[in-house]
Write the structure tokens for this entry.
Amino acid sequence: MNHAVTYQGIAEESKLTTAISHHGFEFNYLDRDWILSRNITLNLRFLSEFKQPLREDIRETLLYFAENNSPHYVKNITGHLNVYLRLSGEDIFSELGFLSFKNKSEKKLMYKISFVRSFLRQMRFLGLASNIDDSVYELTDQWRLGGNDKGGAVLSLDPETGPFSDLEFEAIGLSAAHKFANGILNTEGYMCLSLFKATGRRPEQLASLKCKDFSYSSIYTGTPSYVVNIPKAKVRGGRFRSILTPFGLINYIGQLTEQHIKQQTSNVEVILGRKLTENEKREIPLFLDIKAAKEMKSIPPNELLVYLKSELPHITSRDIVTELNSIVKKLCVISERTGRRIRCSGYRFRYTLGTRAAIQGAGTITIARLLDHSDTQNVNVYVANVPEFAVEISKIMNQPLARYASAFIGRVVKDESEANTENAGATRIPCREKGCDVGSCGTKSFCQDYAPIACYLCPKFRPWSHAPHHLILQWLMEERERLKTDTNGDMQIVTINDRAIIAVCQVIRLCQEHNNG
């Protein structure tokens, strides 16, 4: 056998099946794993569960999305296709499959069906729907499906996943300053935490920063100040660092960043054993991936600049979140709301920035610009009606011993089916004011108490884990504000539902623990 000819044939075949992702990464679309970006590797093993030839039609459609959409979007699609397989029990797209998919999905998860429906519509547009019966499109086109239900953690000021309280936020900053002064935090760690606190940006955005993004300029304010140009993360059709937005930094964060950039540049020069050019220095990632240091040694000097300009040497979003969590863990800050160490995520700083701005009276346009949104339609995802309610919820939840109050004494269940195993034909608990159902009653006894307020305080209440409990909290706070106006601030009347508000907040937290457990 002529091995040279064989290997050459394999290489030629590989070229024919090579594709380039939206972020510029090459992959073989016949492989089981597609590397779409430094953060996203797509696992396509689930395709084997679909029948042929539909399987290849799905692969071709995924290829279209991989080449034209963000890696995160494509990953979401594959996740929802997996859910379809699991809930439908079908290996094709069929009416029965979609009916099962819909019937077995909680109301909160209907957006997943919407994703798969959009995927099928794209298959039809691309001419890849010959193996899907027209009746599937006729059925799903009739459905009105809601979007992803968001905002509960923010609206309830959840102590584990929502915005930090003022005491927690200040404690994080003070403890970090002391740890840095004592050498427990290094410059990069302190800078990383400070940037999350100051900017409220997503992990992906900060992980994509380069040294050239920082400047000391008078362009924006008329007087010299520190500015960082932060890449947008969610840009329709946008590629890596396609749009940058300036953000002002206070002096100590700017000076800290300058110090880190000098250290980072020096470290890279030691690795390479030579001085970097000015252009190379500008393209160094602010947060360098550990593997990149080894790779740079093997890259020819005349090709290094191209490598540095790419996203390859940047830390991944997962790694920068891991680093952030490690930093906060070192601070040993105890939450006054839980009595335990503060739990951290990049998004908690984002929620805090939006919430604090809302409490101080900032409008939706200001908050949208602060959080780097292109418009105002998603601002409520982060502040979730906090402007009018955050201060009052905070007062209620921060009452002495409020965190220990056994306001909710029922039991969270997964859904109505689980509630019915305990009490067959259990009555649904509605909230007519918000047009939703939130749980089931655990008894057949006659009850004249006012649902759903009394239910949250009743030991027989079985709240569903995916129900929109944050809408009940919103309604209770709206009612509280109305009572405040109607009674001229008579707090005996205004606070009549405060215990129920605490109970709803506790249910929201318990549901999150139930769903994550």
In short: The longest helix spans residues 251-272. Residues 149-163+335-391 form one domain. The chain is about 50% helix and 10% strand. The chain has four domains: 3-140, 149-163+335-391, 166-331, 405-516.
